[in-house]
Amino acid sequence: MPRTLRSTPLEDGFRMPGEFEPKAGCWLGWPERPDVWRNGGKNAQGVWVDICAAIAKSEPVTVCASAAQYLNARNRLPDEVRVVEMSTNDSWFRDTGCAFVLNDHGDVRGVDWTFNAYGGLNGGLYFPWDKDDLIAQKMLEMENLDRYRSSLIAEMGGIQCDGEGTLLTTEQCLLNENRNAHRGKAWVEEQLRSYLGVEKIIWLPRGCKFDETDGHIDDLACWVAPGELLLHWTDDTTDPQYEIYQEAYKILSNETDARGRALKIHKIMQPAALEWTAEEATGLDSDTGAHRRVAGTKICASYINYYMGNTVVVVPEFDDPMDKPAQALLKRLLPDHQIIGIENAREILLGGGNIACITQPQYAGQKR
Amino acid sequence: MPRTLRSTPLEDGFRMPGEFEPKAGCWLGWPERPDVWRNGGKNAQGVWVDICAAIAKSEPVTVCASAAQYLNARNRLPDEVRVVEMSTNDSWFRDTGCAFVLNDHGDVRGVDWTFNAYGGLNGGLYFPWDKDDLIAQKMLEMENLDRYRSSLIAEMGGIQCDGEGTLLTTEQCLLNENRNAHRGKAWVEEQLRSYLGVEKIIWLPRGCKFDETDGHIDDLACWVAPGELLLHWTDDTTDPQYEIYQEAYKILSNETDARGRALKIHKIMQPAALEWTAEEATGLDSDTGAHRRVAGTKICASYINYYMGNTVVVVPEFDDPMDKPAQALLKRLLPDHQIIGIENAREILLGGGNIACITQPQYAGQKR
Asked: Where are the alpha helices (DSSP H) in A257-306?
């Protein structure tokens, strides 16, 4: 049986599930590179430990660490977390890990998009990215699961699926000239349909400001249930994100999903603006291949960028008055989940992402 | 549930199976270091591919390759072989991999001996060996299997179990002052009993000459079935191995196994003596941490050092007149197995071992 299939998930009856569907596990990398993670990664590693412990309450967690960091990762992480060796360029498993797709007979396979570190040589965030483009393949081989490989340059952080045929994304990311602009929108849509088994694609023009990924949807909006979205929000008309939220709201309020439902939109109020401190910036190695961040660099902070497990939702906290209201809203929308706040999530933001960005859910097979 | 158990296999009802028992898979490393494997490992890698392809006919094969060699290993090996990343010091998985033990309820666990590269700083074969001592732990963690860790310095190449309570080994290896001499024979026996679930230990004084491991049993004798042994042999009284074979034969002919059976001994005739050529020796990096091998270095070549799969026996060939008689004997003793000869096995010998040394069988769970 070939490991890499020549067919597509759509042809084979596979679909991308929604984040609220049952998981068999969760995959993360291990932050290490000292030009992305300040203080040799030690601050971020501490937060990783908290996040892994929180997710492990809900489903099995696997952390992929480099040979150099294997023992440190193994020793810091809780016993119940599985640690395996894997070389990477950085630790954004939502974007570099495989997207697990399901059929109706209990089978699980993986979709492996082409990865270019968020824009390759045209605005990408690090060089090289060869090892990150192999992560999905290595995960699937370790798990003995079949793989689909697409030449679409994409990251799952830029794509939100409802599991029932609808996909939400941004033109700023997938149609960026540093991703797939040259292939054309029709080709991109055909790839999304073929590899994620979706029927309807809702395009927003752009994602949040200060998001370094070229507008990943996962800082702006996400599905909490079929037909229901969370949208990041502010009522402050002077806020740099204000227009973006308004624009997204207008489009989404006038849309229906693949099943023809109007979308119910829950606004979640954003935290105050953040930026790099001088002390933080001095903790970085510089000019070694990663996007340069200096004191005063604006940071994109979003409550949307959480991890939803089977029984927990692991949510970033920013020491902000809006932390608790955000968690209260999530608890209202997901009453059966334990909402776990992560205090030092700022450390992940300094690396350029957030909790959703570093986690890849492995969905459980389903028989229908 | 703890990953590393504080109890022992004996206490928990686990035992080491015989090599003829059903396997769920086979694990190998990937040869790479240029001071052990001539010509940058390329010759050995070619043989590895042949061996993996042969074993894959019988059970699933996993090859552990370093980050640097991952793509090369993946591309050279057949599709059906699983390749995962793992850092190692060298590629002797019989000795560094975990020994899989079984209970009667279908469970599989692993025994992780302490490893010191065949003698540590007192005659060991390479330095450092820190990564090799982690291989067993990493294998078990990848497979989500529980682990027993013993402070006995041992390699499974130095130990042969019949799966029915009998263990065959050599004093030269386990009681060597560079292994466990200081702990005493009684302590060593207690460790073997506790961690492999055996009742009777048969000690031979020494293994074959020119075996660099300090007399591993797996070049001299092995179980083909409970109560039946293969013993390497020559009738040439001037041969440097002659006395060793005679000595082993005398001991084994007067022994019984744990069940009280007299041992049936099948003599398998050895190939002609081998040694390093000058051309081979020039293919090595020198003085970089590995035991030094030069033109004229004697090589230990044994037909005993094969891999027994569920349906195949993978046997070294040395371009020697005794190759075919050895295979004919194996076919007679194991008529249901396909005997597969590996033509360039000499390349593994140059690294210091043979087919058994590079393979670690993963036994299938058994319900009794």
From this structure: 278-282
State the pairing for strand pair B307-308/B298-299: unpaired
Can you give the pLDDT at residue A108?
98
Q: B29: how many CB neighbours lie within 10 A of its CB?
A: 26
Among B1, B82, B141, whose Cβ lies nearest the Cβ of A144? Answer: B82
Spatial separation of the C-alpha atoms in residues B313 and B308, rounded to whole Å: 4
**Terminal-to-terminal C-alpha distance of chain A:** 25
DSSP 8-state secondary structure symbol assigned to residue B90:
S
Picking from B215, B248, B206, B214, the residue whose alpha carbon sits closest to that of residue B231 is B248
Residue B138 to residue A84, Cβ atoms within 8 A = yes
- In the prediction, which pLDDT does A181 show? 98
Q: Which helix (H) or strand (E) holds A46?
A: helix A42-56
Q: Do A141 and B82 touch (CB under 8 A)?
A: yes
What ipTM does the predicted assembly reach? 0.93
DSSP A337-364: SEEEEETTTHHHHHHT--TGGG-EEEEP
List strand residue ranges (DSSP E) for B219-288, in order: 221-225, 228-233, 264-269, 274-275
Task: Give the pair of three-digit tokens for residue A51.
Answer: 């996040």
B 129-188 residues with CB < 8 A to A: 131, 134, 138, 141-142, 144
Q: What part of B 221-260 touches A (C-beta under 8 Å)?
A: none
Structure tokens at B250: 């005398």
* Coil/strand/helix, residue A111: strand
pLDDT class for B287, splitting at 50, 70, 90? confident
What pLDDT score was predicted for residue B2?
Answer: 54
Cα distance between residue B125 and residue B35, in whole Å: 11
CA B320 to each of CA B303, B325, B334, B345: distance values in angstroms, whole numbers, following the listed order? 11, 10, 22, 12
Single-letter code of the amino acid located at A158? G
pTM of the model as a whole: 0.96
Q: Is the peptide bond before B128 cis (omega within 30 degrees of 0)?
A: yes
Per the listing, tokens 């752009």 go with: A206
| Distances, alpha carbon A33 to alpha carbons A30, A55, A69, B86, in Å | 9, 24, 10, 19
Q: What is the pLDDT along chain A (368 residues), one digit of tens a residue?
A: 458 999 999 999 999 999 999 999 999 999 999 999 999 999 999 999 999 999 999 999 999 999 999 999 999 999 999 999 999 999 999 999 999 999 999 999 999 999 999 999 999 999 999 999 999 999 999 999 999 999 999 999 999 999 999 999 999 999 999 999 999 999 999 999 999 999 999 999 999 999 999 999 999 999 999 999 999 999 999 999 999 999 999 999 999 999 999 999 999 999 999 999 999 999 999 888 899 899 999 999 999 999 999 999 999 999 999 999 999 999 999 999 999 999 999 999 999 999 999 999 999 999 98
pLDDT score for A1: 47
**How far apart, in whole angstroms, are the C-alpha atoms of residue A228 and residue A223?**
6
Site of tokens 């020549």:
A6
Q: How far apart are CA A363 and CA A170, in angstroms?
A: 24
Rounded to the nearest angstrom, the minimum Cα separation between B250 and chain A is 47
A324: Cα separation from own chain's centroid = 22
Partner-chain contact B82 A142, CB within 8 Å: yes
Q: Return the biggest CA–CA distance within chain A.
A: 58
Residues in Cβ contact with B102 at an 8 Å cutoff, skipping those fewer than 6 apart: B14, B15, B17, B21, B108, B363, B365, B366
Closest CA to A321 of A271, A256, A367: A271
